[in-house]
User: Fold this.
Amino acid sequence: MTFLAQQPSEVLVPAVSMQGKVRVPANYRSKILNQLTRAGLLESTRGRTGGFRLARPPGKIRLFEVIAPFEPIAQANVCLLGQARCSDSKPCGAHYQWRELAQARDAFLRGTTVADVASSAGV
Assistant:
C-alpha cells in the first residue's frame, strides 16, 4: 500500500513491476493485492495494460482498514490468553494490561493513514 501510495494516482502498477521493490514473495503479493481489491482499498484492471492503484487517496485510507482483511483486529475484546470469556467483570490474568495495549494499538491503526506511513517509508 505504501508503494502504491507513492505512485501517481492515475497510474496502474502491474503486480510484476512491484518485484524487488516490495519485499513480499510473488505468490503472497498476488493474494494480498486481490484481498485488498475485494476490501475496496485497491482498484485493479486486468490485461496487458492492467495493474493496481489505490481506490482512494492515501490520506483517506486508515491502517486499520488495510490490516482488517487479514487480522481480526476489529475484535479488540479478544483475550490474549485465548479464554472464551474475558471482560472487566471476568478478567484473565493479563486482561487489564492487554486492554491498554490493545486500545493503544487500535488508536494508532485508526489514527494513522497510508499517506502518513508512505511519506516516511523508504520504498
